[in-house]
Amino acid sequence: MPGFLANGFSLADLVTLGLLAAFVLLSGQLAMRTWRRSRLTPAEREQRRRRALVTLGKMGDANLVEVRGDLLVYTYDVRGVEYTASQDVSVLREFLPADLSVAVGPIYVKYDARNPANSIVLSEDWTGLRGGRSRP
């Protein structure tokens, strides 16, 4: 025991420091695990973007220009500026009309008024396509 007293720490002080260090390490590990679980995947981030546009976005007229597999290419005007955008609808296939060639032409778009380039024509809860299905 003279070694402990020579350094100025008692056995109780060393035990307390050891427990404090273990607590800090475990807390850090728990915080890191919680942070990793809370991060959004790209698919979840895209789904949240679509929900926000359906809920808060402005609706406008658009024109579906082309369908390339799972990609819908459309154009629309906001305050005199023409936007050309596309949306990957591979995860939304069940909400698409049976024949997309019928949908080419006039459609509706939902866009963010603060950032009009952020837009959609199809989501889980809304569709701007003619003949598309939407959940009640």
Please explain how this structure is put together.
The chain is of the alpha+beta class. It has 2 domains: 2-38; 43-120, no CATH class. 38% of the residues lie in helices and 26% in strands. Strands 3-2-1-4-5 form a 5-stranded antiparallel sheet. The longest helix has 28 residues, at 11-38. The N and C termini lie far apart (76 Å).
What is the total domain count? 2
Approximate shape:
elongated
Distance between the termini: 76 Å
Portion in beta strands = 25-35%
| Mean pLDDT figure | 87
* Number of extended strands: 5
The rounded Rg comes to: 28 Å
Please summarize the sheet with the most strands.
Answer: 5 strands, antiparallel
Report strand order across the widest sheet.
3-2-1-4-5
Q: Uncertain regions: pLDDT < 50 for 5+ in a row?
A: none
- The H/E string reads HHHEEEHEE
Number of helices: 4
Q: Percent range for helical residues?
A: 25-40%
Structural class: alpha+beta
Task: Give the SSE layout.
Layout: H1 2-6, H2 11-38, H3 42-56, E1 58-68, E2 71-78, E3 81-88, H4 100-103, E4 105-111, E5 119-120
Antiparallel strand pairs: 1-2, 1-4, 2-3, 4-5
Short descriptors:
136 residues; alpha+beta; 2 domains; 4 helices; 5 strands; elongated
Explain briefly what this protein structure is.
Helix content is 38%, strand content 26%. It has helices at residues 2-6, 11-38, 42-56, 100-103; strands at 58-68, 71-78, 81-88, 105-111, 119-120. The longest helix has 28 residues, at 11-38.
